[in-house]
Write a structure and sequence with these properties.
- The chain is mainly beta.
- The protein is built from one helix and five strands, in the order βββββα.
- Strand 3 and strand 4 form a beta hairpin.
């Protein structure tokens, strides 16, 4: 049995533009934070900032497709603070 109160507010999904809607170079796999609820906006924004039409997206399994490098760099939690890199002293 699924208890609705335990459902997360957002779900991380992987998607890309469908074949025929864009050239192959624009069909990289992006990370999307999908919000719980019945409706969806006309455009979804990937973690890298790219806006894509909802009707032109295909959802793919994690690990498939050519990943968007900017989305990969932001793959941690959306509200995760980035710590500075430790210095590489001589």
């Amino acid at each position: 049995m699924i208890i609705q109160d335990t459902m997360p507010a957002t779900v991380l999904a992987v998607g890309r533009l469908m074949a025929g809607t864009a050239g192959e170079s624009r069909r990289s796999a992006h990370l999307f934070d999908l919000h719980a609820g019945g409706s969806h906006p006309e455009f979804l924004h990937a973690r890298c900032g790219a806006a894509m039409p909802y009707d032109h997206l295909e959802w793919i399994p994690v690990g498939s497709g050519m990943p968007c490098e900017r989305c990969l760099g932001l793959a941690g939690s959306a509200d995760q603070t980035r710590l500075p890199r430790p210095s590489r002293g001589v």
